[in-house]
Amino acid sequence: MQKQKKIKHRVNKTILAKQADTQIVVKATIIRSDIRSDFFIPSIRSTKLLRDRYAYLTILLRTLLIVGLCGQASAFACDQPVGHFSSIEGDVSVQSGQQSGWSTAQMDTQLCEGDSIRAGKLSRAAISLITDAVLRLDEETTVTLVDVVPDPEERSFIELVAGAFQSLSRHPRRLTVNTPYLNGSIEGTEFVIRVNEDSADITVFEGTVIAANEHGEIPLNGGDSA
Question: For residue 188, what are the β-bridge partners?
Fold first, then answer.
C-alpha cells in the first residue's frame, strides 16, 4: 500500500510539473505574441503616415506647378498683344516689360508692348507682329518691342540691343530701329540690321531706309548697305 501511494504521489507530481510547464509555455507564447503585436502596430501606423504625407506633398507640388504656370501665362498676358512667336528654335526667352526676370518662350506666348526677346547661342526665333511684319532673330540676339502699332500711317519702334534680325513685310511699313550705334528709319518691306561689338550695319533689300548716327544720316535704297 505504501508503495502504491508513493507511485501515485510521483505520478501526480509529474502531472503537476507538466501542467506548470504548459502554463509557462502558454504565458511565454502570449507574451511573445503581445511583443510582436506591439512591435508591428507602430510600423503599420508609420507606413500609413508616410503614405498620407506623400499624397499631401504630391497634391501640394501639383498645385504649385499649376499656380506657377498660370502665373507665367498671366505675366505675358496683355490687353492688346503686339505679336506672337511663329517659330522657336533652341534657347529663346522673354522678359515682360513689367518684370525683371526672363522666362522660357512658348509658341502661345503673347508678346506685349515693352517686352524683350532674347535668342541664345545656336538659337533662333521668328516673331509675327500686328503690323504684318515678321522679325527673324539670329542667334545671340536681343530685341525690345518698344512701341508696335497696327496703323500703317503710324511709326513703330523696336530696339536692337545685340545680335541681328531680318524684317519681312508684304506691305511697306514705317518703322524705326534703334541700336547703340545706328538708328534706322525704315519705309520698306525687307532689310537686315546687325549690331557688332563696336558698330552696327544695315542692308536694305526692298524699300527705303534713312540710317543716322551722331555723324549724320544717309539714305539707303534696295541693295544698299551702311
Answer: 173, 207
